[in-house]
Amino acid sequence: MAIGSRIEEIRKEVTELAQSARTANELMQSMVKLLHERVLKYNWVGFYMLEPGAPPMLALGAFQGAMTPHTRIPLNEGICGAAASTGQTVVVDDVSKDPRYLACSLETRSEIVVPIFAHGKVVGELDIDSHFPAAFTSEDQDFVQHCAILVGKRLEAPFA
Ligand code: SME
Prior knowledge:
By secondary structure, this protein is α+β, with helices and mostly antiparallel strands. About 40% of the residues lie in helices and about 25% in strands.
């Protein structure tokens, strides 16, 4: 089966999860599990949620993969901080060459971080690490952005 159709298939499953999840938390838990299990190059999949405060922090939420030392990240640190503070997706093909990178596992070679918006504001992000260099193609970027939009919509829904 071609890679493209596989991502298409998983995209459908993720969309079904979003329809059946009772809460945003339930959706995030099931989404990290599905992505981690089904896409071999997604070796760590997790959410960081924005905690308002002085200073605001990104707090680790649902995740699958090895435990990370970075459970709370300020907005001016890491690839995670860069994505949340700019509201832009960040793709890093070689984490060893990016001075912003905060190491989570020695095996990580590339990373994508996609911000999650609710009511027009960044409320968190979806972070995926890969043991493979340059793992995140434009197709992956499109797919992970779709996942982030589903979570943002669920967070906007009443009783999320
Ligand atoms: N690498 C991230 C930190 C989170 S861990 O990857 C799980 C960063 O540079 O912000």
